[in-house]
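We examine the record.

___
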Amino acid sequence: MMARVLVLIGTKKGAFIAESDERRQTWSLRGPFCNHWPIHHLVADSATGAIHGAGGNAWFGPAIWTSHDLGETWSHSSAGLAYPEGQEPVAAAWSVEARDGELLVGVQPAGLFRSGDGGETFEHLSGLRDHPSRPHWNAGGAGLILHSIVRDPAAPDRIWVGISSAGVFYTGDGGKTWEPRNRGTRADFFPEGQNYPEFGQCVHNIVKAAGAGDRLYQQNHCGMYRSDDGGANWQSVEKGLPSSFGFPVASHPRDADTAWMIPLNGAEQGRYVPDARAAVWRTRDAGATWQDLRDGLPQENAYFGVLRQAMATDRLEPAGVYFGTGSGTLFVSADEGESWTAVAEHLPTISSVETLAVD
């Protein structure tokens, strides 16, 4: 039986789902869902088939939207998605990781919540905000947001989170205790001589590489990085890239040495693809060298950016690669980035792209 491939798209005005078969040549689009809420991150729990969307803003408040029928119907809940009385309110849910009916949810202002019942109720994992560094965390341009959640597939109590602008934090005990893991990543916006702090870096996105090792890839406000020891140490892999600034990163589903990034032209230069010529950059050797992939992408007047969670891969062979732009276009590659096709245009600003394969 031929697999169906779903691309889950979170946007500033609701969620959308693009669908194809495993050839990934023709696509249909459904949506918008979630009552036009801002959906910052839309993911699937491959074990249960449920789709979950992290959404909200200061007007709507935070919530997790859930569909158990591949997007046909939706419900949402914010039960327990709040800090204790007297603390600043949770403005929005910004990221979600789903596994076997358990959800981890990152929010603004930065903190982490857990749901053990598939998104019906939530509890605050207070260990992160209890870290001694918390009073010194500063907001990034979009606010103080926990936007990246990485969970070890083989050891679910091992979790990495990315916070703008506090950096990467790691727990090995399911969220009870945390430690910053930013050694080797720069903070160029700090005074000279203070550019490699223990925390305070503006991490933009982190992903885990394939396999049983501890390799991570990161795009940052100040560089692109790889870690081979679970974030304890980072090394720059930006040599050969057109910029040291970018948001999204995606890893290959089977090859730990392969990853994709989309550098932009700098924090102070408009934050669009360099020279207004779109390219996805791929490494096959863990960041030692990079190749720009442009076939099918616009090579003039492309003044768009790609946000931190708006690129993903699927698990098919060859791997598909997907990214969505701030101007609302979804690009698809069915050959690991060698060629690209725009399969949806004129959507609202795309905040996130994830995938799900179903029989």
In short: The mean pLDDT is 96. The chain is about 0% helix and 40% strand. The longest strand covers residues 350-358. The CA atoms of residues 144 and 201 lie 12 Å apart.
